[in-house]
């Protein structure tokens, strides 16, 4: 690292390593340099490295049925490949080109960009489809960006994807469950549809492995695209970094105060907690610091990626999880700071427990993160770890999620698509048998499949269609049956939020006082219901905002809860499920159950979370889970943190220094004996 980037005494990073052969000329650093911005959009398209391969791509697509395109980040795969094929006439038969994305935010931003390049309106020629938001027109949309999960949903209605002439699976290296599932399903479709073209693309994909999966070089060709838009200079830490949050914050301050290139900064951290901590450390005037993580509404995610228009703002810092790691281009980003960690879900089939664990990123991920710079101008990536750590400790590629995640949702989707023998499905990397067996057992206990492992006609089909995890749909189905469907709809919406309280601007004691206003001894679930009802009672939108501010509640999250609830309500209406409330309906007044309304709701929740029960230990602090004998603690954010009841049911398990359980409610162990049936 060049000492001039650092204040004396804070020099941290080692020598530069160049990602690109076009080494960045030190002398050019002083210029605010954005050559592509001077060109028309059409010229910009022709400057992209992939443009040189345009004819070859069109030819290979005619000759082979499957094409794997490997090219550097920013070379033009996502935005250009669908356009080339559109221009070559692949949609002239009225069919469409689909390009899948692992994340919603990239599906939307890429569609926006392509639309801009074609000079059309979003939703006309170019559109996107993500959960709860379909911006496409059946008649005119020919290039469609969609999440891989949505493509699977489309397959349920149209198993051969007959609307499409080309399916492009982008960012295949991410190996999400849905990407892998789409790959297996597409392979099946290719056996029937001889007219379908498939593209698999990534900057870092293991091309030969994909080629073998698609029956070798006879069927599947590989194209390698050389070069990138602009160089990115890599900087490594010269010694291990003790506190990467603090160090990234000081680096940001240093870059902004001493930088020779004016530009924005994108910081990769592992999660919302770290993002908030990081943001609290930056106190610079005229600098806009924005968070970007999956817990935010789409509107706020997109806002973080939109260039700043405020002339008073001199610099922008985006603190993000890996949500911004692939596909997105954030104009103006010159610096990327990579803390080298990611939160990953790990499922243990023996304990039937999924926990969120912080792990080092893979080399492929690190290179994707670096690739967020150098897209509209030359850039720098600062890695908060040593080169030695990169070489020795980082795995080459990301572990396929299918091998470390719970498989219930995936199996349910396969069953809905008519793949009954899920063991024999053609997986690109099959999940471990123990995970498969556990998933089948869980689906049976949830009533989604019968003893022959066939989807059940009632609950099974509804669970497949509901856009929520099957354990949550089980709670909802149970609640509709027990007269509290409306209350469970509220809980489904509230537990889908990742943030309810605005923690960064409130003093701990003030925040605790606010929480206590709504807290109830039964636990977090009923506390959430109190919050939702208090919010929903207010009808004026401005008053809602003021109320949220006064109570340190995130008003955007609450708006999202209202939205999610209304979306789920559409499904209960569609399936003619009763949505009464035990708290608010007139007919609940004659309620004469053995149990109180709050107990009935927690019992219904337990029906989907029987695997998440824990018993208090003799120390009156820790708990032992009934499945897997894990020692867990109640998370400090829970209202039951200080009052540890003897038995609990929880929603999530997070592992940091200890194992913490969240969304906790107290239960009576008697409820585990299926006594609810007599309600
Ligand atoms: N919103 C945008 N604003 C400005 N330029 C953009 C935008 N989106 C894309 N570009 C330009 O188009 C180039 C190609 O982007 P594209 O997403 O197609 O690349 P890619 O090869 O798919 O990258 P990745 O592997 O990172 O997804 C970018 O490097 C950038 O120069």
Automatic annotation (TrEMBL):
Residues 254-418 form the Helicase C-terminal domain. Keywords: ATP-binding, Helicase, Hydrolase, Nucleotide-binding. SMART domains: DEXDc, HA2, HELICc. Pfam families: AAA_22 (PF13401), HA2_C (PF21010), Helicase_C (PF00271), OB_NTP_bind (PF07717). One of its GO terms (molecular function) is ATP hydrolysis activity. Its EC number is 3.6.4.13. Residues 58-223 form the Helicase ATP-binding domain. Transmembrane segments: none annotated. Belongs to the DEAD box helicase family. DEAH subfamily. PANTHER family: ATP-DEPENDENT RNA HELICASE, ATP-DEPENDENT RNA HELICASE DHX35-RELATED. This is RNA helicase.
């Amino acid at each position: 690292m060049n000492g001039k980037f650092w204040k004396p005494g804070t020099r941290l990073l080692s020598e530069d390593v160049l990602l690109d052969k076009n080494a960045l000329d030190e002398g050019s650093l002083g210029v605010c340099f954005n050559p592509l911005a001077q060109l028309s959009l059409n010229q910009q398209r022709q400057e992209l490295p992939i443009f040189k391969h345009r004819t070859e791509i069109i030819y290979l697509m005619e000759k082979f049925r499957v094409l794997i395109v490997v090219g550097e980040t920013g070379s033009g795969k996502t935005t250009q490949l669908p356009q080339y094929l559109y221009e070559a006439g692949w949609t002239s038969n009225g069919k469409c080109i689909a390009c899948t994305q692992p994340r919603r935010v990239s599906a939307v931003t890429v569609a926006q960009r392509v639309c801009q390049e074609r000079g059309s309106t979003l939703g006309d020629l170019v559109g996107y489809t993500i959960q709860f938001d379909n911006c496409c027109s059946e008649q005119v949309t020919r290039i469609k960006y969609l999440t891989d999960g949505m493509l699977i949903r489309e397959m349920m209605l149209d198993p051969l994807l007959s609307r499409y002439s080309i399916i492009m699976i982008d960012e295949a290296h991410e190996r999400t469950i849905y990407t892998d599932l789409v790959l297996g399903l597409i392979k099946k479709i290719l056996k029937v549809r001889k007219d379908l073209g498939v593209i698999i693309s990534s900057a870092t994909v293991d091309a030969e492995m994909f080629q073998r999966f698609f029956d070798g070089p006879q069927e599947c060709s590989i194209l390698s695209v050389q070069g990138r838009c602009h160089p990115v200079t890599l900087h490594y830490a010269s010694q291990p970094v003790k506190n990467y949050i603090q160090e990234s914050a000081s680096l940001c301050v240093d870059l902004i105060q001493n930088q020779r290139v004016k530009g924005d900064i994108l910081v990769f951290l592992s999660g919302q907690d770290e993002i908030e901590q990081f943001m609290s450390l930056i106190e610079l005037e005229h600098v806009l610091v924005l968070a970007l993580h999956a817990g935010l509404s789409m509107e706020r995610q997109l806002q973080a990626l939109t260039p700043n228009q405020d002339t008073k703002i001199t610099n922008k810092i985006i603190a993000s999880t890996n949500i911004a790691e692939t596909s997105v281009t954030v104009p103006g980003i010159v610096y990327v700071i990579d803390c080298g960690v990611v939160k990953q879900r790990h499922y243990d089939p023996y304990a039937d427990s999924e926990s969120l664990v912080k792990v080092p990123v893979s080399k492929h991920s690190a290179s994707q993160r670096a690739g967020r710079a150098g897209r509209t101008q030359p850039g720098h990536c600062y890695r908060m770890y040593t080169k030695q750590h990169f070489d020795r400790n980082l795995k080459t590629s990301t572990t396929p999620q299918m091998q470390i995640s719970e498989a219930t949702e995936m199996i349910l989707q396969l069953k809905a698509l008519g793949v009954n023998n899920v063991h024999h499905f053609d997986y690109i990397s099959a999940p471990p048998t123990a995970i498969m067996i556990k998933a089948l057992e869980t689906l049976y206990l949830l009533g989604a499949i019968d003893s022959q492992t066939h989807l059940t006609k009632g609950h099974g089909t509804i669970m497949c269609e509901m856009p929520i995890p099957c354990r949550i749909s089980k709670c909802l189905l149970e609640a509709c049956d027990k007269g509290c469907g409306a209350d469970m709809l509220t809980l489904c919406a509230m537990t889908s939020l990742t943030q309810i309280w605005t923690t960064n601007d409130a003093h701990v004691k003030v925040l605790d006082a606010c929480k206590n206003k709504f807290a109830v001894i039964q636990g977090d679930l009923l506390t959430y219901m109190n919050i939702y009802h208090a919010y929903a009672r207010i009808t004026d939108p401005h008053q809602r905002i003021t109320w949220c501010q006064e109570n340190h509640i995130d008003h955007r999250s609450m708006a999202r809860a209202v939205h999610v609830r209304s979306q789920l309500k559409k499904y209960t209406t569609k399936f003619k499920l009763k949505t009464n409330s035990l708290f608010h309906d007139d007919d609940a007044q004659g309620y004469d159950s053995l149990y109180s309304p709050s107990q009935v709701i927690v019992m219904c929740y337990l029906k989907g979370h029987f695997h998440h029960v824990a018993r208090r230990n003799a120390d009156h602090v820790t708990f032992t889970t009934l499945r897997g004998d894990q020692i867990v603690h109640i998370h400090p954010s829970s209202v039951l943190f200080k009052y540890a009841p003897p038995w609990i049911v929880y929603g999530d398990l997070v592992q940091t220094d200890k194992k913490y359980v969240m969304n906790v409610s107290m239960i009576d162990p008697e409820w585990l004996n299926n006594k609810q049936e007599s309600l």
